[in-house]
Amino acid sequence: MHKNKLTIAILLGMSSLALGCNDSAEQSKPTLKSQKAPDQLTLKAQFKDNFKIGTAISRDQILGALPEDLNVAKAQFNTFTPENSMKWERIHPELETYDFEAADALVEYAQENSQELVGHTLVWHSQTPDWVFEDDQGEPLTRDALLKRMQNHINTVAGRYKNRIFAWDVVNEALNEDGTLRESKWSTIIGDDFIEYAFKYAKQAAPNAKLYYNDYNLYKPEKRAGAIALIKNLQSKGIQIDGIGMQAHYSLDNPELSLMEDSIVAYAATGIDVMITELDISVLPFPEGEEQGADISLDIALQERFNPYPDGLPSEVNTQLGERYKAVFNILKKHDDKVSRVTFWGISDARTWRNDWPMQGRTDYPLLIDRELKLKSFVSDL
User: Fold this and answer.
1) Mind listing the pLDDT tens digit for each residue in 26-78?
2) 368 close to 345: Cβ distance less than 8 angstroms
3) Which of 36, 138, 141, 163 would give a disulfide with 146, using CB separation of 3.0 to 4.6 Å?
């Protein structure tokens, strides 16, 4: 999610850097063996009457470096999202250079295996190269020049996969925590209407695709109000917006789930689909006073007290994780007439971005599939 680093010193410790949702390095740390859910159980079958179940796929996974991961993803999920392969810095690193290798492979794999593919993401303030906003002399582009650059990018990327990608996260994380529009180079150069243009261009490039807005901490009432205002503004101008993705980077005690439920109901009332995206539940402690959303510009020095389970998750904590997931899914199933998709941010604990955020070297257990690529024992109770 976020590329630029903001180093935060906390007591004494090792300094390190973390790149949140970038393709995570393979973890070799052991985990406690536990009773596994029945082998025949799959997530997509378990929730087939409720909603689609998805996962994020990394470049290494789709290009064949991790075939076991890909086999598990195909068996367990029915919708994929590229973890990083379609973000601007990866797919369009230089003005005249596009890298479609991983994106093409993912599109082909999804089609071959009847997976719905959600493109992620077309316009975002992070993981977008500086040159995007500059002219040949390194000066800021004019409004018209940046709009043209945005349009060319969307036409090239979304247009390449027209009728092959089910939906697009058109704009990602454009709101502040208080619901106001984030100050970014997009908004500074173009103005607040950059979001309108992004959705218009996406509609032109991929006329049959669903178009979504995606953001974190959308359970917060203030941010919820800002997102609803964004949705209604687009609707009032006849601009297509089909759904909102509520990123769900949660912990064992945060957020209060009634806020998540209230937000699902409120977003659905605007007439668009609601999706839970980037779902994971961290079992690790988080530095007091730091936001637990998804701002991966955070880079905090590793301390042992923030990495309490390097050799395996105690059974009592695994039980807490199962209860937390059960509470989340009880709400999602209650509102399955409003929730169309639930996407986890990663296939298994082995390569979750949570292992390295907001400090590198941690060992987390936030997903439903463990490091041995098996469903966790509590999954059948969800």
Assistant:
1) 333 333 333 344 457 899 999 999 999 999 999 999 999 999 999 999 999 99
2) no
3) 141
Measure CA of the first residue to CA of the last residue in the chain; give whole Å: 28
Mean pLDDT value across residues 208-231: 98
Active site residue 261: no
Given 101, 108, 261, 278, which residue is catalytic?
278
Report the sign of the C-alpha dihedral through residues 218, 222, 227, 231, in that order: positive
> What's the pLDDT score for residue 29?
37
Query: Residues 290-308, buried b or exposed e (16+ Cβ, 10 A)?
Result: eebbbbbbbbbbbbeebbe
Q: Are 320 and 379 in contact (CB under 8 A)?
A: no
pLDDT digits (tens, 9 = 90+) for 314-367: 999 999 999 999 999 999 999 999 999 999 999 999 999 999 878 888 899 999
Task: Map residue 171 onto helix, strand or coil.
Answer: strand
173 is catalytic: yes
Task: Write out the residue range of the structural domain in which residue 151 sits.
Answer: 37-289+322-355+366-381
Q: What is the dihedral of CA 371, 372, 378, 382, to 10 degrees?
A: 80
Residue 297 has what pLDDT? Answer: 52
Paired with 282 in beta bridges are 251
- Residues 6 or more apart whose Cβ sits within 8 Å of residue 140: 133, 134, 185, 189
- Per the structure, the count of domains in the chain is 1
Of the candidates 89, 173, 261, 288, the residue annotated as catalytic is: 173
pLDDT of residue 30: 35
Please indicate, yes or no, if residue 295 is contained in any of the structural domains.
Answer: no
